Amino acid sequence: MFHNLIGEGDSHRHITMEGITEVLAALERIEQQAELTYDQLLMLEANLFFGAFASYDRHRDMRMDIDDMSYEELLALEERIGSVSTALSEEQFTKCLKRSIYSQVALEVNKSTVDDMKCSICQVSGNLT
Fold it and tell me: InterPro entries annotated for this entry (predicted)?
């Protein structure tokens, strides 16, 4: 139905005027049959129109399909682009940590509250003092 919407040229997809005319004519036919509400028609038009624009990828030539690369090709690619790491080194990580020694704080609570206390890690009830 929308075969003229997207044309091929210079190995990139682009919108053709015939394609836009075809979409608008189809929307007009749908509107005359009153099968869809006006809001639904607007949504359909936006999806068709902007969806076709979204299919144009100006960086298409720069993308690589690494799923079909051999192990050797992946190693060569790694050598070419270098190591990419987003994690902190252990040294940077330890600089951000505060170290402290646990010291129990004396709480003034009644006996039943102390008996109901649980370990925050293992949730085992018991005397935590």
Answer: MBR1/2-like (IPR045191)
* Interacting residues of 22 by C-beta distance below 8 A, sequence separation 6+: 1, 2, 3, 4, 5
Q: Where are the domains of the chain?
A: 1-79
Q: Decide if 42 contacts 27 (C-beta within 8 A).
A: no
15: amino acid identity, one letter: I
pLDDT tens per residue, range 97-122: 888 887 777 666 555 555 667 777 78
From residue 31, alpha-carbon distances to 16, 18, 39, 44, 51 in Å are: 23, 20, 11, 11, 20
Q: What is the pLDDT of residues 59-75, one digit of tens each?
A: 667 777 888 889 999 88
Residue 26 zone, left/alpha/beta (φ > 0; ψ -120 to 50; rest) = alpha
